[in-house]
Structure formats: C-alpha cells, structure tokens
Design goal:
The protein is an alpha+beta fold. It contains 6 helices and 24 strands. The protein starts with a helix and ends with a strand.
Length: 384
C-alpha cells in the first residue's frame, strides 16, 4: 500500500513538472511574440512613407541635387535631398536681392526627397509644391538642417530671405507653421541655440537690429516667437558681427526667471544663471567652455571674458573671478519688479542715464544697472 501511494505521488509530481514546463514554454513564446510585435512596430515607424510617392535612386540624387544633408527624427537617421527636374543656372549680370553680380543663380521647381540613411532609394515629398519656382545663389547656403535635441528642423530660405521650416514626422516631411510672420533676414544665416531654440537676425531701416529667438512645439509643429530684442545702430552692428563669426555664438535672450532665492545664493557667491561661483579660476572656466565671444580689458582696465549669457571679471595676477555680469536680455525685467522681490535697495543712485541699485549679501553685493526707462540692463554679483 505504501509503495502504491509513493508511486502515485511521483506520478503527480511528474505531471505538475510537465504542466510547469509547458506553462513556462508558453510564457516564453508569448514574450517572443511581444518582442516581435514591438520590433515590427519599430520597423514600421522607421520606414519612410512610400505609398503614392515618386522615387529616385540616392546614388543619382547625390550627383544631381543642389543640396543634400543629414537629418534625424524620433531617433532615426535620414538623408534629405533638394532637387528640381527643371533646374536652370545662369550668371547674375547685375546685383539684386537674389544674388550679387557674377554669382551663379539656380532656379527651378524644387522638391525634397527623403531617404533613410544609407538607403538606395529616396521618396519625393510634396511640401515644396505650393512654393512655386525657387531661386538659390551659389554664394549662400539656403537649405540646411538645424538640430534641436533629438530632432531636426529643416530650413529653406527663399530669394527674398524669408525662411520656410520643415520637420520629419512619421516618415514624411511636413511644413512647420509660424505663430508670427518672420522679418526678412540679414542674410541666409540662422542658428540652433542650446539644442532647443532657433535664432535669427534682422536689420530694420538700415540702422537698428532685431535678434529673435524661436521655440518649436513638436506636437503642434508650430514655430513660436519666444523672445525678441531690438539693438540700436553701432551696438547692434557689433553684436551682429559677433553673432556671425561662429555658429556657436548667439545673442542673449530671455531664459532666467528672477526669484527671491537670488539673494540667498548671492550670499554664497553663486551668481544667477552661471554654474561657476565667485572664486573660480578663469582658466578653468575657459577650459570647460571655450566658446566665449571676446576677452580683454574693460574701460577701467579690469580683465574680462565675455560669453553670450554672462561676463566674468577676474583678478589680473591670480586669474580668480571676483565679479560676474548677467545681461538684462536674459531677465527682461524692471527695477520696480526687482524691488518687489528683493525689497528696498541698500543703496540707490543715478548712473549714466538710469539707476544703480545695490543689495548687500554678506561678503558680496548685487548691483542692478538700468536704462532711463527703468529696464534692467545688467545684473552684477561682486565680491566686496
């Protein structure tokens, strides 16, 4: 009897093990099916939309296209071509908005072709069909990518220096709308700033300059005006020269919110909008961030290093930073608003055409310099 019970127990255990193994096998198969579905969905997302689209070999387009460049969208890599079947070229005999005298001018009804990177085939996109005939000068780059984070905005500038913007969405090139019309640019240059914004420069009435910073909403595919600053005459010219020198250079724009915490940080020598506290070696800052705009001596003979968003002043002998200056363009605020946050200044006096307000913060001081209208031009943090 005992042997019978023992044998029966073994048979039951064997049955349970078989069921367990079958269940484990089923789970593994289901997991493989899930992974397969995810991979298929990824492949579908990655593919360029091909239905109803004309196609051309990428080898041929590389030879014939006026422009070609790389782009990314949703972590996938693409090649974009700009090509016109009816392209014509001629030398410009007299200067105009389109080109200078003697330059090659290309005209035609251009189309974009989109290919996955390293693909042998590219597919025609219809986004330029409504633009009519376009003209491009040999001396200017009028179509190029702007990298914003993990995605690319494509810029195509027409002969009147009005930009058009495009974006790769679900395997197709789509046009980006703008919430405000854009002024004609000084030339065909614009730039991506901090992987998040696009900045343009404009000359108004041959004298004043406007630097406009644009944000991009990927979900609605709208380019919106984030900030704009008017800079007069020679000061604007100076900034445009700096702006044009290198692709990394940009004009400071609104990206700081002034709060009451600024005073507390100032007591520790930590400036607003900078990762480097007072007392840092200027050589370490330059080594860490070599993309500065200018360096030299100010009108008082104090050495400085100018970055787009901050200026560092330092001791000539030691190279230790003892003051920083934040441009008012980053704050876009007034002395009245500063007083609401910080209270009454420890000192206030007339300075140039505006005001100078001083707030003491232990071993440091915050100095607010305004224009005659009370707008903050500079915010300094100095070691006493």
């Amino acid at each position: 009897m005992k042997n019978f019970i023992y044998i029966l127990s073994l048979l039951m255990l064997a049955g349970l093990a078989a069921c367990s193994q079958k269940l484990d096998t089923t789970i593994k198969i289901e997991n493989l099916d899930i992974k397969k579905d995810i991979q298929q969905a990824s492949d579908t997302k990655r593919a360029v939309m091909t239905e109803g689209k004309e196609k051309k070999e990428t080898v041929w387009l590389k030879e014939k296209s006026l422009y070609q460049f790389e782009a990314v969208a949703d972590e996938f890599e693409y090649t974009v071509f700009l090509y016109a079947d009816d392209e014509q070229s001629r030398l410009k005999e007299s200067p105009s908005n389109q080109a200078n005298k003697g330059e090659q001018l290309y005209t035609g009804h251009y189309s974009m072709y989109l290919a996955e990177k390293d693909s042998t085939v590219a597919y025609k996109q219809d986004v330029l069909e409504q633009k009519g005939e376009l003209s491009f000068s040999s001396s200017s780059v009028q179509a190029y990518p702007l990298k914003l984070g993990k995605n690319t905005v494509i810029a195509v500038i027409d002969s009147e220096k009005h930009p058009n913007f495009f974006f790769i969405h679900e395997g197709e090139v789509k046009e980006i709308k703008q919430n405000e019309s854009m002024l004609p640019m000084v030339d065909t240059k614009m730039k991506a700033v901090n992987q998040k914004y696009i900045q343009t420069a404009h000359l108004v009435d041959g004298e004043d300059w406007i630097f406009t910073t644009w944000g991009f909403d990927k979900e609605s595919m709208i380019l919106f005006k984030h900030d704009e600053t008017h800079v007069e005459d020679q000061e604007g010219e100076k900034w445009y020269k700096l702006w044009s020198e290198k692709s990394e250079n940009f004009f400071p724009f609104l990206n700081i919110e002034l709060t009451s915490e600024v005073l507390e940080k100032a007591k520790q020598g930590i400036p607003l909008g900078s990762p480097y506290p007072i007392g840092t070696s200027i050589s370490n800052i330059k080594k860490s961030d070599p993309q500065y705009l200018d360096e030299g001596l100010d009108i008082d003979g104090v050495p400085y290093v100018l970055y787009p968003e901050i200026t560092y002043y330092f001791e000539k002998d030691t190279g230790i930073v003892n003051a920083v200056a934040i441009p008012g363009e980053r704050l876009k605020t007034t002395l009245t608003n500063v007083k609401k946050l910080f209270g009454t200044p420890d000192q206030e006096m007339n300075k140039n055409e505006g005001k100078l307000a001083v707030y003491l913060a232990h071993n440091y001081s915050i100095e607010i310099l305004t224009d005659k209208a009370g707008n903050v031009e500079w915010m300094y943090l100095r070691k006493k």
